[in-house]
Design goal:
Length: 454
């Protein structure tokens, strides 16, 4: 499914020793780069509330998104299938064909089967949310949904309408939608705690995707800090919806990130207020690497953390994602793990956590042992594979494989490139010529992992 991630899990306990079902909040940022959080090295602004998840929990340094663009990455998260098997491998025009398969048991349905209240708040990205068909998140295990009507409309934070549980609701002109969505998410948490049911709250926030729209007071604050960029204008289209240009999109990005960080702080405060902080797991991640649209300048911010590439390619900057997991009293504060993981691993992890069978289509590996401090029992991936398709034909545009410290990258009909990430984390030295056997091995994995699309 989508947007930004917060996940808190038990550390030091096995899943079978859990006496109660923890609440789970999964925050999925949209187009947040590996270097866009201060706990991952951002130096031009701070994200203190998000950093708390790392300071008080676990930070992953080898976590990957499901793909290098929105819809297919979210589909990997929901289905537990890697992108060589998942039937959504690129952003589709009009989102036709991006709907989840109703025959599959997807992430929210696992929680629903375990007796959880389930809610999604933000950008769904897997088809229109205001229709009664299979694209509607309420058809796939969510009790509640509030957010944008479609992925295209989520390019603007000033739409004319939003969707609440399938109903399209008009917005007053000039309304910034994101705070409304976050308030609905907090209302869902309050209601769930009041009912005595554990909850799964999925928050695929649109920030910092697309137009660099931010609350006006924060935008003006950052314009004063970066006045040298006031001559820049950020433009982005959202189809028929209003998408105002942004004066100084550099300031707009910093303001967006401060706004997002404040919203995470509000969630942390609410958990304490409700008395469920120690009973709640928060997971935070991003659906792909940093983008370059709407006037955003990922080079200025070092949004990729010096990794090579951005959104829409399979180099590390396009698919390496921040991942933070916090659960007070269960995960040791300040833990850092190099465990190799990806979006398809979230589904089996959550299924194991709540005592549900892992869905048949799953390709992932539960990382619950890592979260619970039981690394000796942590199963490892032989390899991770990604495949990105473009156009209506969904022809493969790029592929990548991660096997231990080795990384393979192939774009269209070009030759496969090989990198040793232990010596070259920024993919600057293609060593394919010196390692022909490794090239053959990685290409064999690409062939094995790819299932032809119908």
């Amino acid at each position: 499914m989508k947007p930004l991630f917060i996940l808190l899990l038990v550390a030091g306990l096995s899943a079978h020793s859990l006496s109660a079902s923890p609440n789970v909040i999964y925050i999925l940022a949209d187009d947040l780069g590996y270097g866009d959080l201060s706990c991952y090295g951002q130096e031009k602004f701070e994200t203190p509330n998000i950093d708390r998840l790392a300071l008080e929990g676990m930070k992953f340094t080898n976590h990957y998104s499901g793909n290098t663009v929105c819809s297919p990455s979210r589909a990997v998260l929901m289905t537990g299938q890697h992108s060589g098997n998942c039937y959504i491998r690129g952003n589709l025009k009009g989102e036709v064909g991006a709907e989840l398969d109703p025959e599959m048991t997807v992430l929210p349905e696992v929680f629903q089967a375990a007796g959880y209240a389930t809610g999604a708040f933000g950008k769904w990205g897997l088809g229109p949310t205001n229709e009664s068909g299979r694209a509607n998140p309420l058809k796939h295990g969510f009790d509640e949904f509030c957010g944008w009507k479609s992925q295209t409309i989520a390019h603007t934070y000033y739409p004319t309408t939003y969707v609440l549980n399938g109903e399209e609701i008009p917005l007053e002109e000039g309304t910034y939608l994101h705070p409304i969505v976050m308030e609905k998410a907090r209302d869902f948490m309050k209601k769930s705690v009041g009912s005595g049911k554990p909850f799964f709250c999925y928050i695929p926030t649109a920030i910092p995707h697309a137009a660099m729209h931010a609350p006006e007071e924060l935008h003006e604050k950052w314009r004063k800090k970066f006045p040298q960029f006031d001559d820049k204008i950020g433009k982005y289209g959202a189809g028929p919806e209003p998408c105002p240009d942004v004066i100084n999109p550099i300031a707009g990005f910093a303001a967006m990130m401060e706004h997002l960080d404040n919203e995470v702080g509000a969630i942390l405060d609410l958990l304490t207020e409700l008395g469920v902080d120690e009973e709640t797991i928060i997971l935070f991640s991003s659906d792909n690497g940093a983008h370059k649209e709407g006037g955003h300048d990922p080079k200025f911010w070092n949004s990729s953390g010096s990794l090579r590439g951005h959104k829409r390619d399979m180099h590390e900057g396009g698919i390496r994602a921040p991942m933070l997991v916090r659960w007070p009293g269960k995960i040791a504060p300040g833990t850092v793990t190099e465990h190799l993981s990806s979006f398809q691993d979230v589904l089996p992890t959550m299924a194991e956590l709540v005592g549900q069978p892992i869905p048949e289509q799953n390709d992932g590996i539960s990382f619950l042992p890592t979260l619970t401090g039981n690394e000796s029992n942590q199963e490892a991936h032989e390899w991770l594979y990604w495949e990105f398709c473009k156009g209506t034909s969904q022809k493969i545009f790029s592929q990548a494989v991660r096997q231990g410290d080795w990384k393979a990258y192939r774009e269209s009909e070009k030759k496969t490139e090989i990198f040793d990430l232990s010596k070259d984390p920024y993919e600057e030295m293609n060593v394919a010529a010196e390692n022909p056997e490794k090239v053959s091995e990685m290409e064999a994995i690409m062939l094995e992992a790819h299932t032809p699309l119908p």
